[in-house]
């Protein structure tokens, strides 16, 4: 069901943990739906010098968050802003159709952490990231709970 | 070599070698169609009738009350749709009572009947996963056509008060069907003493082959046909008989029923040992009543972890198990069974079902216990939900 890349990132997650000196932290998802992703970014001079994640969820949730950290770590903030869920799926060699939402969550987790970073800098993130979706269970609607 | 532990016998079981041996002639040289007149077809025909006797004897039924089907789902569909439609046509009865935690073969059949205009009452199964007979009795109406309550639940293994339910149904003149797919071969079933009118079973749950099941239907109870066609099964279930499968279910039920007591004694010890040890894991719980429970069923939740991840890490250790999390149910909701006993979604997502079987040893259970805490710790270390649970726990203590 899963590609080798997904299983590799699930079995050997990269950059798992917390980042005490992070200057951008974002959390998306909720326990009721079965997945929560938390992203920690450390941004210096416009570059993401470190990135860590913590995820509660299925194998693809863990794998998408793991690979997302690799895709932004060491990269410029602008590149992280442009990270799409599609790129995450491609990097993993594909995801089953009903797991695509995990990649969306990974993109949103990175964006939420960036939004937190901009807010801490006194910058309005909306012109840069757009309006971030609300991930309350009541607004999600995908699982009908 | 890595150890392999199969702990998903509620999903399916191995085909017993002695059962296969009995099937082999009918997969090879004895291929005659039992409906044919010539002598070449006599042996397959006799084999089908012998299997019917074996199935009947196993549940204290008569041979002409046993009908072979393609499996548990067909038996459930036939019993429920067949009785409901017949009772509506003959007596104008339009109401069916069942439970919230039936298998989808029952629940989705009931959904289909709702579209035909039937009214369905689903009984609560409460936190222990047991139907309360007095609630069933209160739900029976003048127009109740059928009661369908599973014998034992497929996820949490709880065994329902079938005899009391049967007595209530008999008292009120309501037809009683039970989906006994998980129970047959694991507990003693007596359709007479239990007042069961229809009972569904599936061969591959007790070391028989896949693709064959049976429906017990009490004499005088006449569900409409589900599969129309030829005159097989006394005109009530068309289609050329699956002779090797039927021989297999007959042989399998005979051997299973003969060993119920010794297996129940051995496996319930393994089950109880497993649950007692696994409960030492922080924030764990057993789902479903511990006493009225299939001897080989373990169903537990571990907070802060998600079931699919848990299963894949168990699989990486050679352990085949099951979960009721959303990600393993193929939908976005966790198991309806776990929600029906009042679990919160976030707790239900962290469920683990182990179903032991005749091949399971205490060493297998100890092996699972040796890797499980490490796997759960590993997932909890990754889990922001676990962090939150611990934070709230600390705040609760302070308060």
Summarize the structure in words.
The complex is a heterodimer of chains A (145) and B (399). Chain A has helices at residues 4-11, 59-72, 77-81, 85-91, 100-120, 126-129, 137-140, and strands spanning 24-30, 35-44, 47-56. Chain A has one domain (4-129): Sufe protein. Chain: A (Alpha-Beta Complex), CATH 3.90.1010. The radius of gyration of chain A is 14 Å and the shape is globular. With 145 residues, chain A is α+β, with helices and mostly antiparallel strands. In chain A, a hairpin with a 2-residue loop joins strand 2 (35-44) and strand 3. Chain A has a three-stranded antiparallel sheet with strand order 1-2-3. Chain A has seven helices and three strands. Chain B is α/β, with parallel strands linked by helices and 399 residues long. Helices cover 44% and strands 13% of the residues of chain B. Chain B contains 15 helices and twelve strands. In chain B, the strands form three sheets. Chain B has a seven-stranded mixed sheet, sandwiched between helices. Chain B has a three-stranded antiparallel sheet with strand order 9-10-12. In chain B, helix 6 links the parallel strand 5 (144-148) and strand 6. Classes of the chains: A alpha+beta (145), B alpha/beta (399). Chains A and B meet through helix 1, strand 2, strand 3 and helix 2 of A and helix 10, helix 14 and helix 15 of B.
């Amino acid at each position: 069901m899963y590609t080798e890349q997904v299983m590799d990132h699930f079995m050997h997650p990269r950059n798992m943990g917390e980042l005490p000196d992070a200057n951008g932290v974002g959390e998306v998802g909720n326990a009721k739906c079965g997945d929560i992703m938390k992203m920690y970014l450390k941004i210096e001079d416009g570059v993401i010098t470190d990135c860590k994640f913590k995820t509660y969820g299925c194998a693809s949730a863990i794998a998408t968050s793991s690979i997302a950290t690799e895709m932004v770590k060491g990269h410029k903030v602008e590149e992280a802003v442009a990270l799409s869920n599609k790129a995450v799926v491609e990097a993993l060699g594909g995801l089953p159709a009903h797991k695509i939402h995990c990649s969306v969550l990974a993109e949103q987790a990175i964006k939420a952490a960036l939004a937190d970073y901009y807010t801490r800098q006194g910058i309005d993130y909306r012109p840069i990231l757009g309006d971030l979706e609300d991930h309350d269970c009541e607004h999600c609607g995908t699982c009908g709970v | 070599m890595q150890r392999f532990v199969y702990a998903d016998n509620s999903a399916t079981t191995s085909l017993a070698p002695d059962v296969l041996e009995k099937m082999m002639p009918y997969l090879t040289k004895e291929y005659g169609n039992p409906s044919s007149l010539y002598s070449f077809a006599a042996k397959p025909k006799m084999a089908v009738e012998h299997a019917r006797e074996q199935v009947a004897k196993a549940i204290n039924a008569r041979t002409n009350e046993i009908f072979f089907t393609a499996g548990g789902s067909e038996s459930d569909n036939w019993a429920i749709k067949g009785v409901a439609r017949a009772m509506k046509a003959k007596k104008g009865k339009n109401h069916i009572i069942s439970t919230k935690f039936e298998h989808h073969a029952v629940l989705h059949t009931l959904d289909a009947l709702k579209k035909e205009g039937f009214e369905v009452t689903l009984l609560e199964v409460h936190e222990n996963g047991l139907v309360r007979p007095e609630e069933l009795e209160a739900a029976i109406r003048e127009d109740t056509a059928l009661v369908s309550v599973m014998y034992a639940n497929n996820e949490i293994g709880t065994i329902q008060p079938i005899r009391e339910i049967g007595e209530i149904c008999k008292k009120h003149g309501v037809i009683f069907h039970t989906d006994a797919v998980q129970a047959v071969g694991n507990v003693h079933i007596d359709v007479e003493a239990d007042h069961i009118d229809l009972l569904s079973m599936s061969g591959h749950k007790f070391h028989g082959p896949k693709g064959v099941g049976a429906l017990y239907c009490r004499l005088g109870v006449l569900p409409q046909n589900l599969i129309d066609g030829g005159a097989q099964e006394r005109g009530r279930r068309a289609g050329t008989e699956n002779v090797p499968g039927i021989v297999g279910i007959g042989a399998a039920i005979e051997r299973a029923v003969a060993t119920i007591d010794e297996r129940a004694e051995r496996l319930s010890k393994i089950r109880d040992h497993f649950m007692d040890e696994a409960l030492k894991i922080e924030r764990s719980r057993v789902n479903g009543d511990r006493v009225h429970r299939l001897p080989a069923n373990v169903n537990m939740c571990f907070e802060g972890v998600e079931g699919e991840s848990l299963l894949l890490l168990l699989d990486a250790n050679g352990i085949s198990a099951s979960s009721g999390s959303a990600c393993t149910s193929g939908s976005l909701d966790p198991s309806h069974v776990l929600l029906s006993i009042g679990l919160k979604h976030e707790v239900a997502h962290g469920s683990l079902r182990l179903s032991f079987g005749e091949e399971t040893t205490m060493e297998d259970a100890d092996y699972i216990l040796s890797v499980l805490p490490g796997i759960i710790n590993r997932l909890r270390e990754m889990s922001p939900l676990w962090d939150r649970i611990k934070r709230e726990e600390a705040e609760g203590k302070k308060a």
